[in-house]
Amino acid sequence: MKELVSTLTGRRYPFDRIEEFTEDGESLEVRFGDVANASIRTGKHLWERFGDFLPFSQIDADISLGEGQTALLPADRKLAEYTGLDRLWLKNETQNPTWSFKDRGSLTCIAMAREMDEQVTATISTGNMGNSIAAYAAKADLRAIVFVPGFTPKEKIMAMGIHGATVLKVHGPDYSVIKKQILDLAGELSLRVVSGNGPIRVEGYKMIAFELLEQMEGEVPDYIAIPTSACGHTRGVFKGYRELKEAGLIHKIPKMIVVQARNNSPIVSAIKQGKKQVIPFSGFHTVAEAITTGNPMGGDEIIDRAARHGWLAEDVTEEEILDSQRRLAASGYFVEPATATSLGAIRKLRASGKLDREARVVMMLTGSGLKDTSVLGHHRADVRELELPEVAQEVRSLLGR
Ligand SMILES: *Cc1c(COP(=O)(O)O)cnc(C)c1O
Q1: 227 CA closest ligand 1 atom index
Q2: Following DSSP, what letter does each residue of 43-67 receive, concatenated?
Q3: Which domains does the chain have, with CATH numbers?
Q4: I need a labelling partner for 241 at 20 to 30 A (CA). Which of 113, 143, 215, 220 fits?
Q5: What's the predicted TM-score (pTM) here?
Q6: Which segments in the chain show pLDDT lower than 50?
C-alpha cells in the first residue's frame, strides 16, 4: 500500500494528498510495499531498472525528455589541488533537458499527474523548477501554471512561457509568504502545486543515487555535496541511498554536505549552531539566485538528519561563490552561482580538517550558468576588438612571437 508519512513524527497520510506538507509544515515522504525485498531489474530506463523503488507501477516513456544519464567525471588536477581532495568527482546535472537536476523530479511529478488523471499541473518557482515543469507539462500535453514572485527576471519568465505555461506573477510582501499562501491554496482549489520539497519530486531525485550506484559500479562515496534551498534534492539523494541499503544492495549511506550562501543560510546556520529548527532569513541578497529559500518548509527534517547521520554543513560568502564559479569555468564547467557554492564549501571543510584528503566526495553540479547571465558582470572576459588589418599583429603578440 502506498502512503505518505511525515518525516519527523511519523504521521500517516493518503498517497494522493494534494498538500505537500502536513498541516503544521512537516515534510512528507512516500512509503510503499517492501523496499527490503526490492531488487535491480533489467530495462532500458533507470526508472525501469529501479522500478521496485518507485511508487508508480509504470512510468510512460513518452513523458520523459531524456533526463538523467549525466556525466560523472573525476575532478581535474586544478580542482583537486584547489580543494585538497584526491578523490573528488563532479556529477554534471547541467546536462539535463532543461539544464538542471529539477528535470528528474519533474518526471515523477508528471507521472503523478497522469496517475491521478489530472489535466493541470502547477508550481511556484523563481526559475529552474518553473522552466522544468513547463517543459515536462508541454511534453505530456498538460496545462502548466507557474506562480512566480514579482521580482522574477524576464528571461526566466520567457523560458517558462515558450513551452506554453501560464505564468502568474504574484506581488506580495516576501517570497516565503507568497509561497506558503499559494501552497495553502492548493487543497482549497484541488490543484496540485508542486514545490521543491514535495514527496513526489523527492522520488525523482532519488534516481540520482541509483544512477551514481551504476556509474560507480556499486561503490558508495563518503560524501555528496549539495547546494540546498527547498531541501528536496538533498533528501531525495539521501532517501535513494537509504533505500538501497534497506534492500541490502549497499552497506553504507554517504553523508550529505549541506551547502548554502552565507547571506541566506537558514539550514547551515541551524546545523552549525546545534539548533533543531530552521533559522529563517529574509531581506537578504545573494548572487546564488537558485538557492534563495529563506525559510524552507520541512527544513527541520534536514537538520534532524544532519545531527543523526553526521552530515557536514558549510556556507560561503559572495566572493567565494564568484571565485568558485570562475574556477569551475576554468576547468570547463559553466555552472550557475548557486551550483558553484559547493566548491568553496568543500575546500573550507578540507582546510578545517572536517574532510580527509582521501575522502571520496561527489559534488552535484545542479544547474547551468547560461540561465543566469546577470552575474557575468562580475567576471572578466578577455575580448579584444580590432580592425581586420590588425589581426595578424595581435595574434603574433598573443602567441608571443
Ligand atoms: C533548485 C536548485 C537548487 C536547490 O535545490 P533544492 O531541492 O531546492 O534544495 C540548487 N541549485 C540549483 C541550480 C537549483 O535549481
Answers
A1: 10
A2: -SSHHHHTGGGSS-S---GGG----
A3: 72-97+201-378 (3.40.50.1100)
A4: 113
A5: 0.96
A6: none
